[in-house]
Design goal:
381 residues; 23 strands; alpha/beta; 15-stranded parallel beta sheet
């Protein structure tokens, strides 16, 4: 008689062990993700808390420094730090280090330098380095700047080291820059920058900007060397990865993020903006009489007059005058003077010298650097 053996149901030991191992792996991975998320959230909250506490401290000091009636007042270490879960790693007032239990007498008629590094229990920190203006309220700023006639526009450019003078400027590339440590940049109407992940910047001694400014991944002012002053006739929003290196004078809202400005901040009623009439083109015969080319190649030392002008190679010591646009193409590294009062100057690689144009556009990793035209040479206006 045949014996029929039925297959037994259920799982083999190997299958059970494999399932258990997979379950443990999934649980471990899930815990890691959850732990990382919680840690990131805690760090973000910690940073936000530190920033808010730092702003509160500076606001408190500013109110005391600017709104009190007496000539002097006493500021103590304990007065600044109400949150017992935080501590100062370094605290400097009037460039003097302060420790726990110490106080300092401060005159209200002086600017007050305050810097500190604020720590929390999670070993996170937030740094402040600023200067609080003396006195109270809003002051009026008058900037004494020569208002030139058409005939002395050249002298004005030289006397004030103006190397970018334009009605519109667009900086649309990553790591693009306009630099001149002792120079002046003037933007009469509109400034715009891109939202590139890499910051771009204008580094000059004085920067005049007319209109509301929204900064994203952008900085104004010299990061090293001569202290800059940024004049903004309008509101300013200093966004992420942005900073003003130097002093800020503006006519906009009071609530400027003090942590984004390395120098003083002053809200003013009036800025006497340097409103210059853009220099006009001379008559074509004026350029011909002065040996400007109107055709042929542009080489070192060339003076050139024409309509829309494109340069695709590197040249130096040139003076380029256009009735339309001037475009320095990708391979062009140019030095000299670019004058396009009715058009746009586009820099795609590098330019050194002076730009006077209706619109200036700096693209990619392009760089514009100040260099004044030598005294023995004549500006083309």
């Amino acid at each position: 008689m045949k014996q029929i053996v039925k297959k037994q149901g259920g799982f083999a030991l190997v299958e059970v062990l494999l399932t258990l191992v997979l379950f443990i792996i999934i649980i471990t991975m899930g815990y890691g993700v959850l732990s990382t998320t919680i840690s990131s959230s805690d760090k973000s909250y910690s940073y936000t808390n530190l920033r808010q506490e730092a702003n509160l401290i500076i606001t408190q000091v500013r109110e005391e420094h600017q709104e009190g009636d007496e000539e002097k007042y006493i500021l103590c270490y304990e007065d600044l730090l109400a949150n017992n879960q935080l501590d100062f790693y370094e605290l400097n007032v009037r460039n003097v280090s302060m420790d726990e239990g110490e106080c300092v007498e401060i005159p209200r008629d002086e600017h007050l330098a305050v810097s500190f590094l604020l720590n929390d229990q999670h070993q996170n920190s937030y740094e402040i380095d600023t200067v609080i203006e003396r006195g109270a309220g809003v002051s009026e700023l008058e900037v004494s700047i020569l208002q030139p006639n058409q005939e002395d526009f050249s002298d004005f450019i030289r006397d004030h080291n103006i190397f970018v003078y334009t009605n519109h400027v667009r900086i649309t590339g990553a790591n693009s820059s306009i630099k001149g440590e002792e120079a002046t940049a003037v933007v009469n109407e509109n400034f715009s920058s891109s939202n590139s992940a890499n910051a771009s910047y204008i580094e000059t001694k004085d920067i005049y900007l007319f209109g509301n400014i929204e900064m994203k991944n952008f900085s104004f002012g010299n990061r090293l060397g001569t202290t800059s002053t940024v004049y903004i006739d309008g509101h300013i929003d200093i966004g992420s990865n942005s900073k003003i290196h130097g002093n800020l004078k503006h006519t906009g809202d009071e609530n400027v993020d003090i942590t984004k400005v390395t120098g003083t901040i002053e809200q003013v009623e009036i800025i006497d903006f340097p409103k210059l009439e853009m220099a006009d083109l001379q008559d074509p015969s004026w350029y011909i009489q002065r040996d400007y080319q109107t055709s042929g190649p542009i080489t070192n030392g060339t003076k050139f007059y024409g309509d829309d002008i494109k340069i695709n190679h590197s040249v130096s010591d040139v003076i380029i005058v256009s009735t339309g646009d001037i475009d320095l193409l990708g391979g062009a590294s140019v030095a000299g003077v670019l004058f396009a009062p009715n058009g746009k100057v586009t820099v795609r690689r590098s330019f050194t010298g002076v730009i006077i144009a209706e619109t200036v556009e700096v693209l990619g990793n392009a760089e514009v650097t100040f260099e004044m035209l030598s005294e023995d040479k004549e500006f083309p206006f």
